[in-house]
Fold these 2 entries.
Entry 1:
Amino acid sequence: MRKIVVTLATLTLLSGTSAWVTASQDPKVKKEIAEYQDYFKKRFPTVAKDDYSDGVNALPQYAERRANWEMLMEFPPYDADMDKAREMWKKPLKSGKTLGSCLTRPATKYPYYDEQRKEIRTVELDINECLKKHGEEPIKNVKHGKMALLIAAFREQYNGQPWDIDIDTPGAIAAYEAGKKFYWTKRGQLNFSCANCHVHSAGNKLRGDVLSAGIGHTTGFPVYRTKWSLAGKPWGTVHRRYGGCNRQVRAKPFKAQSPEYRALEFYEAAISTGVPLKVPSQRQ
Ligand code: HEC
């Protein structure tokens, strides 16, 4: 037995970078993602990669509050809304087509770089484009409400499947670089980068919150959030959350679906490669 354990340990050491990563074939991108993920493997050795879909609930520093969350999850507050969301998703559009027949790419492959249009495409943009194409009005508010529900109904069909976006063409790599720059740049009056909170301080407390690890970010989105539910809009896309995080450091948020937030989402998806989707999720 002892021998087997030693052999396994040696293998892990020899393999060097994480066996967690599959995404890009680009050696630099591949190495960066592996390094990012290895950082968390070392920082939280008891947390399995799949667990990061649970956001902050996955961290040992959150263990005391996790029991409450688990209790809440016995009757998830989002269940009734999800029934509605699935109905909306299946409802034929004016042309007779459904959204499902329009969005042919799996949710694990979003966001993606569109070579023709030379831009990052998100589920939000493709849903609105599909609505227009099939005689419906596009959805104006792309941060909460109906849009968030439709995305939840789409993405939940891929729950349990590892996130695996494509970052192989020069355009996609440039978008990844733009998102990376945003993520690591300090901003706002408090002068914090995303990484300052979600990498360097992951697991630490901040004004009563525990900071989640950046790995796995956005795998649970859209989320149903208690804080948002107090104002009557419990559902939010990940760009809604980005706006909140920018505001926390007193930086001016960008618009949902701005090129900046799309690149950021692309980068967060890249560094979460291999973490399974878990949609919707409940958050504090
Ligand atoms: C001052 C610290 C701080 C900074 C800087 C910050 N955040 Fe956050 N973020 C939080 C807190 C607090 C939460 C709520 C607890 C948690 O889940 O980490 C949060 C939550 C999130 C979540 C939700 C995770 C989930 O699964 O529910 C995402 C995604 C996120 N942040 C992304 C970002 C990005 C991207 C940036 C950079 C634009 C950023 N944050 C900057 C403090 C910060």
Entry 2:
Amino acid sequence: MKKLPSILAIVFFLSTLSLIYVFVFKGSVVETSDNRVGIELSQSNADFALKEMRGFLESIQQINERILNKDSEQIYVAARQSGANVVHEAPQGMMASLPIGFKKMGLNVHAKFDEIADSIKANNNFNYAQKELNTLLNSCITCHRTYKIEVRN
Ligand code: HEC
């Protein structure tokens, strides 16, 4: 009879592992017609994600304009507003829907905005800010090539 508790422990362990796999690594993904990985999100989570994207685009435009105007203080402001400090605003439950690759790329983009803010403050180097902006744009492109959003009703 001693075996039963250990079997239960193993079953519990394996189901915990599979939950971790689904919620931390796999996310809620589906195949799509254009061969990107579709991420299933509720309407409100999709709205949140796309609003954040539009915020990214605004930051990019502002940083670019302020590089031309050589306005380092305002580059700092525009970059910070898409930095890692906004990650905690993501709605509860949304993180579990996102595959690990998407989460990594998303966090990486927030970190790159922070790098632009930090380096313009430290060095006031507009050429360098433009290089960083270009690297950042390549990250946007990579993610858009890989993933799309599928609203789940
Ligand atoms: C982690 C992945 C990821 C990163 C990084 C990313 N995006 Fe997106 N973005 C998406 C997905 C997925 C969509 C939805 C596209 C679809 O369903 O076809 C999207 C949509 C958008 C949209 C459309 C918004 C709307 O209202 O429909 C804009 C604009 C956008 N992204 C800008 C950016 C910019 C600018 C960057 C870089 C600073 C960026 N994104 C980085 C994944 C990403």
